[in-house]
Amino acid sequence: MSTSLKKKTITLKFGGSTLASATHFLQVAEYLKTRCQSATVIAVVSATKGTTDALYACTQLAKHNREQASQALSDILAAHNKLVTELLPASFASNYRQEIAHYLEQTKTRLQNIHQGENIDWHIAFVLSLGEKLSASLLSALLQSQQRTASWVPSELLIRTDSEPFNTNLDQSATEKAFAALNEDYFQSAIRIITGFCGADKDGRTTLLGRNASDYSAAIVTAFAADELELLGDTAGILSADPDYVPGAETVAELSVEDACLLSQCGAGVLHPRTLEPLLKTGKSLRLGTLQHEQGTSIRAQLAHRQASLLAAWSPPQHAELSKKPPLPLNLKKWQARFPESSLVSVFLADHHALRYWQNLLTDIAAQAGVSVLQRKLLSKQRVIVFAIPSIELQRFTRLLHSRLYPLQQETAVAIIGASGRIGRQTLQLLLTEGQRLFAESGTQLRVIALCNSKQTLWCKRHENDCQGLLNRLAEQPLQQRPASLLAQELLSQGYDKLVVVDASASSEIAGLYEQFLAAGVAVVTPNKLANSDALQRFTELQSLARKHRVPYCYETTVAAALPVLKPLLDLRRAGDTPHHVEAVLSGTIGFVLDSVQQGTPFSAAVQQAVEKGYAEPDPLQDLSGEDVARKMLILLRTCGIRIERSEIELTPLHDTNLHGPINQQVDERWRQLVLEVQAANQRLCYAAQYRDGNVSVGLKRIDAQSPFYRLRGTENAVIYQSTFYQDIPLTVTGPGAGINVTSAGLFADIVVAAEALSRRAPLSAIAA
Ligand SMILES: NC(=O)C1=CN([C@@H]2O[C@H](COP(=O)(O)OP(=O)(O)OC[C@H]3O[C@@H](n4cnc5c(N)ncnc54)[C@H](O)[C@@H]3O)[C@@H](O)[C@H]2O)C=CC1
Ligand SMILES: N[C@@H](CC=O)C(=O)O
């Protein structure tokens, strides 16, 4: 074929995920318009996401039940019609429908033929090719409606194949002739569109190149009609592992043609195994990426070294007639016969030496994780180790190996539970904005890998730094009714050497996971008071677990937010100090409410403001009942070495709905009267905790001007500590003890402390080795 244009010709292949909705079609149209400013563009399109599977299901129904098949086809067409209505003005929609009518009629006939049992495979092949035709004609009509010259052609006119309906082979010379014979007019359009996935035999019958073979179609088109190829999908190029298995998998910038071939032969779904054949013959280049992601992966003919380790996972195909097994560089049939329920994980090592060392190390890691390696094979020349394992372990094993091949050398992974809450989101913001500076100043590198709330989890990609964007994506994740234990399992199965889990929830379920995290060597950082204020035995066990597994357990913010209270008290205790008398104001919410009512604000309004300002607990009754203060006092005293249970604290609530009723005007009036009384006596109100002679009490107090608490305002907390070392003049810590900014700052500081401690610890992989 010849084109009259001098510009470079580029084939852009759009996978099903890039055509999943009307918005996606509009994005593809914009992308094409931009690209055709600097190149002549040929677009090869797949069927919209899920359509080929739906058509396949239709053909299977047709074998036994014509009505159901016809209903299933109507459903597919209804989904397409919805796209057409959303995308095309009426006149273009009507042209489009006329253009496609012939294919729809044919499809219906073919379904009938399938039902009658004649030449079934040929009819199935035709029906399956419908998805690409619908996409191509819709995209072409959309571009035309946007005043672009665009035209589409079914690939049956261009790609000629053997007479096999499925997994057919290319007829090179017939295809060459077909491209040469194609009407010149077609190539006058600014944007030319060709359907992917299929071709035709010498009799014009539709044939299929294989499951997900639109990449291969695009490579054939490139070999005959273009200078280079770009495959555009929903993953940012070739990743270090299948992102469905390893959410944190990384994009590999460059890959040799040999490795790309081997990778697809080993079952990595990212490239159809035959895609590279036509390009290899013609020496044309290939890039994989997304519409948004600039970097992607370039496949290069010459590359001195493998730049990064890679993993390919392979499990037996679902639709055998559509998916030819990859011709792996080993006798797959034998393996499968011996281990029928097995899957394969191939490890491409970047390390140029020590193949046997790696083979043994990875095998040991499998053994320690309880994954039984059924068989393994070392392909020395290719520096690839193939493991056969039970299929059920495929995802876990892939993640485990990935974490060993990509140990975060400097980085510490951070997962935030409760990320959409007030403290969680501000902490995320700090991690994203202050992370760079922290790294520059101290070398501590933090990487947020996961965000969770009570129903959703988002696995973050590297370099995602837009806090609101991440939170939006978290909110778009599917809702899961998952028990907390499953969340813990998911986080642990990532296999990070250095992982900090931040619990920014107020959930007892999440607090119940700390033992599991600590025992697995994962640091816990928390402002959630529930674990440490549980039974004393649990508090002690958590401390010993952390010590035993050499893992940080940081909870400074559970008492007085970012104020330095627990760490200094712990240091004193380690030096042998014993507290005699501790007095403390520990509730920012109550401090704020009392200060406000003493300035004339009604009690109910003051409580409302404390909630709005982010001082109160998710359930503010936890503050008003005094329970939150009791918990903080327990944690404080236990940190000083006092062995005390919650039942030993004498608590008088500030407001308990069971005792005092709902917060209404009567309550406001009672508080107004009390304030008048107290002010008449030149006193103030404060809610304080006290420890003296082994007794602990929490409650409302009237204090006069001599009290160290008399001058406290707003959310100010205070701890006054007298001990063996601080006898005459007490140790006093005071300052705001609640609020989103101060708490998140304290939490950030604890995350850094935990990350630094993890960095000093020997890597888990070394321990495992
Ligand atoms: N507000 C403050 O000044 C201070 C708060 N804290 C503590 O910080 C924690 C968070 O407080 P806020 O951000 O105000 O709460 P919030 O209610 O705004 O956020 C809680 C988050 O936890 C998530 N969550 C709840 N149950 C969950 C579960 N089972 N699994 C996963 N996620 C779950 C929620 O979806 C939400 O994203 C609380 O424990 C609080 O005591 C500690 C010191 C000061
Ligand atoms: N709700 C608490 C803040 C968290 O500990 C308070 O008001 O002090």
TrEMBL record:
Query: What Enzyme Commission number(s) appear in the record?
Result: 1.1.1.3
What pathway does the UniProt record associate with this protein? Answer: Amino-acid biosynthesis; L-threonine biosynthesis; L-threonine from L-aspartate: step 3/5; Amino-acid biosynthesis; L-methionine biosynthesis via de novo pathway; L-homoserine from L-aspartate: step 1/3; Amino-acid biosynthesis; L-threonine biosynthesis; L-threonine from L-aspartate: step 1/5; Amino-acid biosynthesis; L-methionine biosynthesis via de novo pathway; L-homoserine from L-aspartate: step 3/3
Q: Please provide, alphabetically and separated by semicolons, the GO molecular function terms listed in this UniProt record.
A: homoserine dehydrogenase activity; NADP binding
Spell out the InterPro entries in the cross-references: AceGlu_kinase-like_sf, Asp/Glu/Uridylate_kinase, Asp/hSer_DH_NAD-bd, AsparK_Bifunc_asparK/hSer_DH, Bifunc_Aspkin/hSer_DH, HDH_cat, HDH_CS, NAD(P)-bd_dom_sf
The Aspartate/homoserine dehydrogenase NAD-binding domain extends over 421-555
Swiss-Prot/TrEMBL keywords: Amino-acid biosynthesis, Methionine biosynthesis, NADP, Oxidoreductase, Threonine biosynthesis
Q: Does the keyword NADP apply?
A: yes
The residues covered by the Homoserine dehydrogenase catalytic domain are 564-752
Q: Which reaction does it catalyse?
A: L-homoserine + NADP(+) = L-aspartate 4-semialdehyde + NADPH + H(+); L-homoserine + NAD(+) = L-aspartate 4-semialdehyde + NADH + H(+)
Q: Keyword NADP on this protein? A: yes
GO BP terms, alphabetized = methionine biosynthetic process; threonine biosynthetic process
Q: Please list the cofactors this protein needs.
A: a metal cation
Which Pfam families does the entry link to?
AA_kinase (PF00696), Homoserine_dh (PF00742), NAD_binding_3 (PF03447)
Domain Aspartate/glutamate/uridylate kinase intervals: 9-283
Protein's name in the database: homoserine dehydrogenase
Species annotation: Permianibacter aggregans
Lineage, broadest ranks:
Bacteria, Pseudomonadati, Pseudomonadota, Gammaproteobacteria, Pseudomonadales
